Amino acid sequence: MSPTNENSPVNLNIFIHMEMYNHFS
Predict the structure, then answer these.
(1) Element (H, E) at 16
(2) Which DSSP category does 6 fall into?
(3) Which domain of life is it from (predicted)?
(4) 1-25 pLDDT tens trace
(5) Residue 24's pLDDT is what?
(6) How far is it, in rounded angstroms, from Cα 11 to Cα 8?
(7) C-alpha to C-alpha distance for 16 and 19, rounded to whole angstroms
(8) Handedness of CA 8, 10, 11, 12 (dihedral sign)
């Protein structure tokens, strides 16, 4: 895990999207 605060929120957003998609599928 790199100390990139700029990439952190983006990664989290994608992760949440994937989780939601998985739950909806």
Answers:
(1) helix 7-24
(2) T
(3) Eukaryota
(4) 555 566 678 888 999 999 999 888 6
(5) 82
(6) 5
(7) 5
(8) positive
